[in-house]
Design goal:
Blueprint: E1 4-7, E2 13-18, E3 25-30, E4 35-43, E5 49-56, E6 65-71, E7 77-84, E8 88-97, E9 103-111, E10 120-126, E11 132-139, E12 144-153, E13 159-167, E14 173-179, E15 185-190, E16 199-205, E17 211-216, E18 220-224, E19 230-235, E20 241-248, E21 254-259, E22 266-271, E23 281-285, E24 292-294, E25 300-301, E26 308-314, E27 327-333, E28 339-346, E29 350-358, E30 364-371, E31 382-388, E32 405-406, E33 408-411, E34 418-423, E35 429-435, E36 441-448, E37 451-455, E38 462-469, E39 475-482
Antiparallel strand pairs: 1-7, 2-3, 3-31, 4-5, 5-6, 6-7, 8-9, 9-10, 10-11, 12-13, 13-14, 14-15, 16-17, 17-18, 18-19, 20-21, 21-22, 22-23, 24-26, 25-26, 26-27, 27-28, 28-32, 29-30, 30-31, 33-34, 34-37, 35-36, 35-38, 38-39
């Protein structure tokens, strides 16, 4: 298939770099007139970063190309290219580092006139210099609508690709392919029988050559035999659902992140058998809030399981262009899922976290999408990447960083009858104070724990100044507007 690979010099903003021994931190914002949507990110042992994105124009949002970019360990853009096909939309779903320095790309192809139809799976190898080679494309039957694609590269170099298709109905039928390192299709199956609906989103090839998968929508683990027949299944414990993140720590045990059954709280487990949930560890973070969602593609990772990074989005909802503030939320736990610290990033735009990647220096990368609804009326998002140190900090930031780190947040803002306060878990006791513009204290409230609510019905409309402090170092301040 003829395709075009176009090196580009994107207009971008690079905000803040700090070199500190092995703990490099930075903030990077990729902004251009195009609509850029983050899809995946990989970091090498030397700190070099590769990330991918979906590109479209505001004028023609249904014509989609793919961006591949390379950055150094300090967050400087080294090289980039746009990958486009003349008669297909191309969307890079996953990027994997290969065994010999190459990369494996898993992409989905769609018709340019009938979105999600005439679809296929595209596989490519890529060099460290962003040269693509060894293209293989596998098309679905023409009446199949491609709903979703997920993938995993196994230790033997094979690639598992799965997801769901729709066949002239609204039902999502799961599918799974296995490709070898040369991208030959070894086996494939689409589960079209009645009652078998869902989306395969996470995969692992077990030591007995069976396959472990997560089936979204039914919220189940399933075990497939060597011919992809379902031989057992088990409901995921504690009603976990949503955007799953998974990391295996042994051949039989794994950590899993999801949203709990209440519909939006982050919850995570350590399970010691692929399907047997007996004795699993479970922790729920932020029990009373219903708008915290795990990162879209994978929100859990570690290099050392005593330092697990977990990420999601605070105040996220369906859609890319929502006109309200949201925050990246990152926390670190030990191997027993006890939280060490929690931090919030943003609040000045609508953020959606895509992925968390633990780095070899003890920190992590957080990548996602930012919609600056306060300064644009166009449906145009940008890509933001944060490199955090082991404490979740961005060191040496400029005086006016593009994204601000918080240990407490105030919402809704503007508000009316009440102020809600969210406090990072490491601060057990805190004091909230609200002042008018003349500096007079109008109310104060002591909080114990991670959240509190302040009644503001008696206050007149206007602008107020708040301050949140604690004896262990918490200090947050800002403006709050009562409508």
């Amino acid at each position: 298939m003829k395709h075009f690979i176009i090196p580009i010099a994107l207009f971008f903003m690079f905000l803040g770099t700090n070199l500190c021994s092995q703990n490099t931190t930075f903030e990077y914002l990729l902004a251009s007139p195009l609509d850029e949507y983050f899809t995946d990110i990989v970091v090498l042992e030397d700190g070099t970063i590769y990330f991918t994105a979906r590109l479209s124009s505001v004028q023609n949002p249904n014509r989609i190309s793919a961006l591949i970019a390379k950055m150094d360990r300090s967050g400087n853009l080294i090289d980039s290219l746009v990958f486009t096909l003349p008669d297909k939309n191309v969307y890079i779903n996953h990027l994997f580092q290969g065994e010999y320095g190459e990369f494996n790309i898993v992409a989905s192809l769609y018709d340019t006139t009938d979105l999600f139809k005439k679809a296929g799976i595209a596989l490519y190898n890529m060099t460290e210099q962003l040269s693509l080679y060894n293209e293989r494309i596998f098309y679905f039957p023409p009446d199949y609508y491609l709903s979703a694609i997920f993938a995993n590269r196994e230790e033997d170099g094979n690639i598992l690709v799965g997801g769901a298709v729709r066949i002239n109905t609204s039902t999502h039928h799961p599918f799974i392919y296995e490709f070898n390192s040369d991208f030959d299709s070894l086996k494939a199956k689409v589960f079209t029988e009645n009652g078998n609906y869902g989306i395969f989103s996470k995969f692992e090839k077990l030591s007995n050559n069976n396959y472990w998968v997560i089936k979204m929508l039914q919220q189940r683990y399933e075990i497939l035999d060597t011919s992809f027949n379902i031989i057992s299944n088990q409901r995921i414990p504690n009603q976990l659902n949503g955007n799953f993140g998974v990391k295996w720590d042994t051949d039989t045990s794994f950590y899993l992140l999801g949203a709990d059954g209440s519909g939006g709280n982050l919850a995570y487990i350590h399970q010691f058998h692929p399907t047997d949930t007996t004795g699993h560890l479970y922790k729920n973070w932020r029990e009373t809030d219903t708008v915290d969602f795990p990162a879209l593609w994978n929100g859990l990772d570690f290099q050392n399981k005593d330092s697990i990074f977990i990420g999601g989005t605070r105040n996220m909802w369906i859609g890319y262009y929502n006109p309200w503030p949201s925050w990246f939320v990152v926390l670190q736990t030990d191997s027993l899922l006890n939280i060490r610290w929690e931090r919030f990033y943003g609040g000045d735009a609508y953020y959606k976290m895509g992925k968390v990647v633990a780095t070899h220096d003890g920190g992590c990368l957080v990548a996602g999408t930012r919609y600056d609804y306060l300064n644009t009326t166009e449906q145009e998002t940008d890509i933001i990447i944060l490199k955090l140190n082991s404490e979740g900090l961005i060191l040496g930031n400029p005086e006016n960083p593009g994204i601000k780190m918080h240990e407490a947040i105030v919402y809704p803002n503007p508000g009316n009858e009440e102020i809600k306060v969210r406090i990072a878990v490491q601060h057990k006791h805190s004091l909230f104070e609200l002042f008018d513009l003349k500096g007079r204290l109008v109310l104060k409230e002591n909080f114990t724990g991670t959240e509190g609510t302040v009644n503001t019905t008696f206050l007149p409309s206007g602008t107020y100044l708040y301050k949140i402090t604690s004896n262990d170092g918490l200090f947050e301040s800002g403006k709050w507007v009562k409508q």
